[in-house]
Amino acid sequence: MAIDVTVLRVFTDHDGKHGNPLGVVDAGTVDAADRQRIAAELGYSETVFVERPQPGTNTAHARIYTPSIELPFAGHPTVGAAWWLREQGTPIHTLQVPAGIVQVGYTDDLTAVSTRSEWAPEFAIHDITSTEDLLAADPSDYPDDVNHYLWTWLDREQGVLRSRMFATDLGVPEDEATGSAAARMTDYLSRDLTIVQGKGSEIYTQWSAEGWVRISGRVVSDGTRQLD
């Protein structure tokens, strides 16, 4: 039986351009043993399998897979899953993933999740001196046994930075928009940020001294594809 996969782009810019592609699958339609295979076949940086909320509840469960491994938490899949659930008519207050309970919030055009920065994978953070050097960086020049986050300021006073992320070890040569890395960077710099990543995706974060980071962004749907 064919599997329906909703394809989203998470962390788009104001015009709905760019964003990180995400596959969203209703977990009730597939066997748990098939999730990794499906994620690898889809080939997105992450695919999220969502269990819809039980009647009378405001929480849902999700599991997240790259093409090669399962992740306990990731940013754009949790934002995308929360957005998808609202579009299905079941907005939520919390989303439970293996790392813990993610708080969810909605505004007219932004979907937000609150996470702990330590839930994110470890990143080697590279401070780059200029945007030109950042954009010229070659992923093949960085070892493939760790995630690499490259960044430089666009506007230090306003908290706007430009970034790229290489994660060959996760089966993702370059990620278009990385919410978990945004959480790490927000905690690393201890301030609210606007992050422009990849070709022009936009991530907004809010820092808390209590260790929570709120990640928000825009989401658009590119429709549904079917997988055998």
Please identify the structural class as seen in this structure: alpha+beta
Helix fraction, binned, reads 10-25%
Provide the CATH architecture of the largest domain: Roll
Shape: globular
Indicate the mean pLDDT. 95
- Overall number of structural domains: 2
**Tally of separate helices:** 4
Low-confidence stretches: none
What does the largest sheet look like? 8 strands, mixed, barrel
Query: Which CATH first-tier class of the largest domain would you pick?
Result: Alpha Beta
Strand order of the largest sheet: 1-2-3-4-6-7-8-15
Corresponding CATH superfamily of the largest domain: Diaminopimelate Epimerase, Chain A, domain 1
Determine the strand fraction and express it as a percent band: over 45%
Overall radius of gyration: 17 Å
CATH fold category name of the largest domain:
Diaminopimelate Epimerase, Chain A, domain 1
- Kindly report how far apart the N and C termini lie: 6 Å
The SSE string, one letter per element, is EEHEEEHEEEEHEEEHEEE
Task: Please characterize this protein's 3D structure.
With 228 residues, the protein is an alpha+beta fold. It folds into 2 domains: 119 residues, Diaminopimelate Epimerase, Chain A, domain 1 (Roll); 95 residues, Roll (Diaminopimelate Epimerase, Chain A, domain 1). Helices cover 17% and strands 45% of the residues. The protein contains 4 helices and 15 strands. It has an 8-stranded mixed beta barrel with strand order 1-2-3-4-6-7-8-15. Strand 9, helix 3 and strand 10 form a beta-alpha-beta unit.
Secondary structure: elements and pairs:
Layout: E1 3-12, E2 20-26, H1 35-42, E3 46-51, E4 59-65, E5 70-71, H2 75-87, E6 94-97, E7 100-106, E8 111-116, E9 123-127, H3 131-136, E10 147-155, E11 160-167, E12 172-175, H4 179-189, E13 193-197, E14 201-207, E15 212-227
Parallel strand pairs: 2-3, 4-6, 9-10, 11-13
Antiparallel strand pairs: 1-2, 1-15, 3-4, 4-5, 6-7, 7-8, 8-15, 10-11, 11-12, 13-14, 14-15
